[in-house]
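User: My instructor asked us to take a sequence, write out its structure as tokens, and then describe one feature of it. I'm not sure where to start. Here is the sequence I was given:
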Amino acid sequence: MRVLIVLVAATVILTTAGIAWASQTITATTDVNGHARPATAEIDGPSNVRCTSAAGQAGTGQKPSCSIAAPGYSGIVEIGKVIATDGGGTVTLTSNGNPPLRCTAEITP
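Assistant: Let's start with the prediction itself. The structure tokens for your sequence are:
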């Protein structure tokens, strides 16, 4: 019984302190006609955002990549690269390259 009370108390303290434990995955797409469908996620504080994949139509032109706008950062992120945010707010992911496109990013606290 005491262990349960301690675990519940620790959970309440950590939750009210605003500590996030889980990662988020977001995916943005652009259809064949070039209509972008950005993805967004809210973050509570400084986080890392990694472009995990970017795929598009084969051929000439821009290589597929992720474009990330987040607190303290705005720019293109190559597959596998990580950027750090400097606080809480909105992370917006868009895809770059020849449509149709799909890119995914993982956000970790």
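For the description part of your assignment, you could build on this observation: Residues 3-16 have pLDDT under 50 and may be disordered. Try explaining in your own words what that tells you about the chain.
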